[in-house]
Amino acid sequence: MYIWSSFFCKTMARPTDKAALLAKSQQNFDLLFDFIENRNESEQNKTFPPGTMNRNIRDVLGHLHHWQLMMLDWYAVGMAGQKPDIPSPGYTWKTVPELNHWIWEQYSHVGLSELKSKLKESHIIIIEVIHKHTNEELFEKKRYPWTGTTSLGAYFVSATSSHYAWALKLMTKALNKV
Fold first, then answer.
1. What are the boundaries of each domain within the chain?
2. pTM over 0.90
3. Residues 1, 19: Cα–Cα separation, whole Å
4. Which residues, at least 6 apart from 87, have a Cβ–Cβ distance to it below 8 Å?
């Protein structure tokens, strides 16, 4: 078992280069799955206390997986020279709560085991895409028109290492309250 305060200090720094992005993404992904797999089936299926839209580990994994699918779609559209609908068709950054609720509905009937597999698959694909790029391609701001004023790497950080850290923090807090 790891010391949680130490974990959060180590996971909160955002990667600023390819090596750090790959390392932190894998580290946080592994920590997330270690956290889940070190719980018995009953704990893995516990309902979180009121106050969060994601009501259990399954919901969190569905959320992570779908945001990775959206990131992969943005990437495919953007790298083809078109402007992707970010965050998703029919939604804006102001309506992300509604988008997250829609995502929650889409995965509410998918089992935990299936969502573990889906997230593992989307994680592998994202990591493969990151590997295809140089450090400059990932972290030079304004390099690609579709990423606006930020870098491609910042999008990948948000879809991987930072999102995994958020998920682990949410699950830890929620399961410690139950």
1. 16-38+55-177
2. yes
3. 26
4. 70, 93, 96, 99
| pLDDT given for residue 12 in this prediction | 57
pLDDT in tens, 87-133: 999 999 999 999 999 999 999 999 999 999 999 999 999 999 999 99
Helix, strand, coil abundance in the chain, percent, nearest 5: 70, 0, 30
Residue type present at position 52: T
The CATH number corresponding to 16-38+55-177 among 1.10.287.470, 1.20.120.450, 3.30.365.10, 1.10.10.10 equals 1.20.120.450
Q: Reply yes or no on whether the pLDDT at 153 is more than 70.
A: yes
What CA–CA distance (Å, rounded) separates 98 from 131? 33
